[in-house]
Amino acid sequence: QVQLVQSGAEVKKPGASVKVSCKASGYTFTGYSFTWVRQAPGQGFEWMGWINVHNGDTNFAQKFQGRVTMTTDTSTSTAYMELRSLRSDDTAVYYCARLLCSSATCPLDYWGQGTLVTVSS
Amino acid sequence: QSVLTQPPSVSGAPGQRVTISCTGSSSNIGAAYDVQWYQQLPGTAPKLLMYGNTNRPSGVPDRFSGSKSGTSASLAITGLQAEDEADYYCQSHDSSLSGSVFGGGTKLTVL
Q1: In terms of C-beta density within 10 A (0-12 exposed, 13-18 middle, 19 or more buried), how is residue A34 classed?
Q2: Confidence category of residue A105, pLDDT binned at 50, 70, 90
Q3: B24 touching A (Cβ < 8 Å)
Q4: Interval A91-100 mean pLDDT
C-alpha cells in the first residue's frame, strides 16, 4: 500500500535551515509528483509548492520563493523540502503529499504523517 | 485569512445530515477548478475524502457526497456517525496565486 514516511520533529533557531524528508513506498515513485503543505498550530493548511518528480520542475508559493527548495532522489524514492532563514512563524507541522496526477491542480491523494518544525531561540 | 471560506463549525446528531460549505471566487472555484475535501481526525494527517468535486476515493462511504456550483462547493454527510467527528477542509487551485488554496477548516461535532 502507498506510504509516505516523513523525518522526525526538528527544533531550530531563528535564521537556521531545516530539511524534511518524505520516503515513499508502495508505488512507482517517478509516476507521481509531490506537494508540500504546512499547518501552523491551530490553523488551516498553507500550500508551499510542488515538484514534478519526472522532470524536476518546481513551482513555489510566492511567499516562500527564495527561501524554499524542493528536490527528489529517485534512487531512494524520497522527496525533500528545505526551508531557510527560519522565523518563529515558520513553526508548523509540515506535510508532504502525493499528487494524484502531475499537475499542481491535482488532488492530494496520500499524505505523510507530518513533521513538526519548531523555531525558537 | 484563508482564500476559501468555510464555517468554523457544524454539528448534528447521530443519523442526521449536515452540510459544509466552501466559498471561493472567480480565480479558483469559479474558474472551473475542481474542489477536493479532506478529513482530518485529531492528531492525524489529512485523508482525501472527495476529489473532482463529486468523486469518492475507494473506501470512502457513500454517506459522503460533494457538489459544486458557481463559486461554491459543498460537502454533505448523511447518517452521521460518531466516527465522523473531525475537521474538514476544502481545497482548490487558484489561478492568480498559481497554486493550491485551502479553506480554514470546519470542525464537525456529532452531538
Answers
A1: buried
A2: confident
A3: no
A4: 96
